[in-house]
Amino acid sequence: MIKQLYQVICDRRDRPRADSYVATLMSGEGDPILQKIGEESLEVILAAKNLDPENRDPDSSDSRAALIHEIADLTFHVMVLMAQRKITPEAIEAELQRRFGTSGLSEKANRQPVKNGK
Asked: Which of 2, 13, 51, 59 fits as disulfide partner to 63, beta carbons 3.0 to 4.6 Å?
């Protein structure tokens, strides 16, 4: 589903239509996709905080459904950013594969520092 959705997003990028939400996000001034990712990230955090912390009944919980919904929204908007910047799902998969089997703490400690937000 991820690759299929990414292709649709790329199609909207390459052949923008007036009625396309994706095309609107990619063409707006002031980085609207970055703003949207910030909003969606906050919504994921709030939905996660509302989830039953004791996880007593996660399968029937409305808060679990809300968290799933918000994670899907965030994932979609990150994919729009990926398509806008021409980063493929395969590139993300390769990076995750590179990290696989390495302690997250070790991987983070070995990263090069980020300079100027890049």
From this structure: 51
Any idea where the domains of the chain sit in the sequence? Answer: 2-110
Angle at alpha carbon of residue 24, lines to 89 and 114, rounded to 5°: 50
Helix orientation angle between 2-14 and 62-84, rounded to the nearest 10 degrees = 50
The CA distance from 74 to 83, in Å, is 14
Helix, strand or coil, per DSSP, at residue 30: coil
Is 47 within 8 Å of 66 (Cβ atoms)?
yes
pLDDT in tens, 57-100: 555 577 888 899 999 999 999 999 999 999 999 999 999 999 88
- Fold exhibited by the domain 2-110: Helix Hairpins (1.10.287)
